[in-house]
Amino acid sequence: MQDMSDEQTRLQEFFTARAADWDSRFPDDGPAYAAAVAELGLRAGDRVLDAGCGTGRALPPLRAAVGASGVVLGADLTPAMLREAARAGRDRDGQLLLTDVAALPLRSRSLDAVFGAGLISHLESPAENLRELARVVRPGGVLALFHPIGRAALAARHGRSITSDDLRAEPNLRPLLACSGWRLTSYVDEDARFLALAVRED
């Protein structure tokens, strides 16, 4: 992997410190992940990437969706997170890649879908990074940006309020996706989940 920027280093340090107890802090998120994966409409044999996979909580439902003939990849910048994914046995559901989603070691148009849980707020260059995700997805492929709780609930968890510059707000997210090769097709922001779906434009 190339030398990391200061922001990438900060992110890696943040998640390294939290990797060991990450799953135990959010033990009830499994059904929300499975429901979000179901919205991707994956079929047997599809190829899918979990971008910023962390401890790999999306990998089992992604594997179930694409079956044994499909390809599941989990990419993350933090070695400690990938170690926890392997410790939990999730490396059996997908191949783990230590890489930055800003520079994926994947062929263009080689995937059918990308799943990103909690991803958008951690992208260093959102438009450029979303464009890289678009590069590796075939035209008509799908992107899911997910969080197991909505924006308001997440802000409250951190003692903050939602601000108008939040990238996940629909008026901000729609044009951001559009300039990055994606068309927003569905947007849900409820207390129980955040899920934005987009299709890769031709």
- Annotation, overall tally of beta strands: 7
Helix content: 25-40%
Tally of helical segments: 8
Which residues form runs of ≥5 with pLDDT under 50?
none
- Average pLDDT number: 91
The N- and C-terminal alpha carbons lie at a distance of 30 Å
Strand content: 15-25%
> SSE string, helix = H, strand = E?
HHHEHEHEEHEHHEE
How many discrete structural domains? 1
Give the overall shape.
Answer: globular
Q: Assign the CATH class.
A: Alpha Beta
Give me the CATH superfamily: Vaccinia Virus protein VP39
Radius of gyration: 16 Å
Write the layout of secondary structure elements.
Blueprint: H1 6-18, H2 22-25, H3 30-38, E1 47-51, H4 59-66, E2 71-76, H5 79-87, E3 95-98, E4 111-117, H6 126-135, E5 137-147, H7 151-157, H8 170-178, E6 182-190, E7 193-200
Parallel strand pairs: 1-2, 1-4, 2-3, 4-5
Antiparallel strand pairs: 5-7, 6-7
Helix pairs in contact: 3-4
